[in-house]
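Backbone-to-sequence.
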């Protein structure tokens, strides 16, 4: 197994030394390659915009034009997530053995072409097929980006970066409402419907972004050409002091097995499973839910903007506080509580105004909880291949919850303003609370146990880089972020 150490022999550098002005300048340089348009942030925002836009198209004519019944519309939504579930773990295994600078833009290019094709479909069979293909091409992007972050940032720096682009994804939902309102103006241009044009234009934009991304999306940290040799050395040193990210780890199936047999990895996956149900059902059916409060379709489209905007602000504010305290579980549980309050308001009030307030609570809690939990395995799972599989597993199992969400929010359960689906959503959130509590309790006890073992040990337990890589998060000196 090849291992390269970033720290010079005899160095006395500590974790506390890595918050200097030099490090802040280095982080800003890395951020410029991982966050702003047209880089990773744009790729993720476009990914989240597409399913949200399909939700608006149900109101503005797609289902009618393609002769899709309400239940078939739900099937089209579900097929997208079925492809996600099948291909996410294989996609991240390929990423670990390949190069993110090529793999991520290539996925985006394929997805943009598929999106253009979605604007050209003429029947429901074509819609079903292209929805599945979109899921295939998008499956590796989100977990791939989260994993890439884990090889550039220290553990406590990752959650804030994930939150920034997840907040951008929430804003994409807001822009989706504005775009859905605007596409009515394009209806008939070039003999095409408005929903056809937005898919075509969005796909063309995605293709353009993917071509630029080949030049700006970074490769692995130890090969980063946009950094000088001294900057690269500093980056690898600060990563080595914090985690396994500075090690050059060859792919081995033993790490895949470690991920598949770790109860914490499965717990992260089930945590997202509960949250994914409400994330995708809320984002995909928000225009329908708001329209059900008595608003016209154009009003429902525009009225999705405030709750999605509030969700973005909630994400950034909460994750900033979470990073300051270096705690995840309390905020994930608290976000679930806010979302549950929103659903209770939707269930117990009768006026449209009060229920619209409930929508805001639900959106803020759901999006904020997801932004926090999606970075959690990236902070707590080591070694690298194990982490790549763990991140993909989390989203894979989570998206099974998304499939359940789009199938449960179906027409025959829409009575009393989706009363039954809302109750089920509360159940899923409570399930996530229990999983988060389990993770917090187990990891806290394990951290205390490791402290006790090291304190009682008569010999210094300092594994070599090779041994540290092999042990990963099972290393006695490894501490979980709770």
């Amino acid at each position: 197994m090849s291992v390269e150490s970033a720290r010079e022999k005899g160095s006395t550098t500590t974790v506390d030394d890595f918050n200097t002005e030099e490090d802040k300048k280095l982080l800003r340089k890395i951020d410029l390659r991982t966050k702003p348009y047209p880089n990773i942030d744009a790729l993720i925002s476009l990914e989240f915009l597409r399913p949200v836009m399909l939700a608006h198209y149900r109101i503005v004519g797609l289902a009618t034009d393609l002769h899709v019944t309400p239940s078939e519309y739900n099937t089209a939504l579900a097929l997208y997530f079925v492809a996600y579930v099948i291909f996410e773990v294989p996609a991240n295994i390929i990423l670990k053995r390949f190069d993110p600078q090529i793999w991520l833009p290539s996925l985006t290019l394929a997805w943009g072409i598929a999106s253009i094709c979605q604007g050209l479909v003429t029947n429901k069979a074509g819609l079903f097929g292209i929805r599945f293909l979109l899921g295939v091409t998008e499956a590796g992007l989100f977990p791939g980006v989260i994993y890439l972050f884990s090889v550039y940032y220290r553990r406590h720096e990752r959650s804030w970066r994930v939150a920034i682009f997840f907040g951008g994804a929430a804003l994409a939902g807001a822009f989706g409402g504005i775009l859905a309102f605007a596409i009515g103006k394009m209806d008939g241009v070039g003999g095409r419907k408005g929903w056809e044009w937005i898919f075509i234009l969005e796909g063309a934009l995605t293709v353009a972004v993917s071509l630029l991304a080949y030049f700006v999306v970074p490769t692995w940290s130890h090969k980063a050409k946009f950094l000088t040799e001294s900057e690269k050395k500093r980056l690898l040193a600060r990563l080595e002091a914090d985690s396994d990210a500075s090690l050059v780890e060859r792919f081995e199936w033993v790490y895949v097995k470690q991920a598949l047999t770790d109860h914490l990895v499965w717990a992260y996956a089930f945590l997202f499973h509960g949250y994914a149900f409400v994330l995708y059902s809320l984002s995909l059916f928000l225009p329908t839910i708001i329209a059900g409060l008595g608003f016209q379709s154009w009003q429902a489209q525009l009225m999705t903007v405030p709750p999605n905007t509030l969700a973005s602000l909630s994400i950034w504010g909460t994750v900033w506080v979470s990073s300051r305290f270096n705690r995840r579980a309390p905020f994930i549980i608290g976000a679930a509580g806010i979302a549950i309050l929103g659903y209770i308001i939707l269930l117990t009030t009768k006026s449209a105004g009060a229920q619209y307030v409930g929508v805001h609570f639900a959106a803020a809690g759901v999006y904020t909880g997801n932004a926090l939990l999606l970075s959690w395995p990236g902070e707590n799972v080591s070694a690298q291949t194990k982490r790549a599989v763990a991140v993909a597993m989390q989203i894979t199992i989570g998206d099974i919850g998304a499939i359940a969400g789009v199938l449960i929010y179906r027409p025959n359960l829409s009575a009393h303003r989706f009363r039954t689906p809302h109750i089920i959503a509360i159940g899923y959130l409570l399930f996530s609370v229990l999983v988060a509590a389990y993770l917090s309790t187990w990891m806290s006890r394990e951290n205390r146990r490791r402290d006790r073992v090291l304190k009682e040990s008569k010999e210094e337990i300092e594994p070599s880089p090779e041994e540290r890589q092999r042990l990963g998060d099972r290393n006695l000196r490894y501490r979980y972020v709770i």
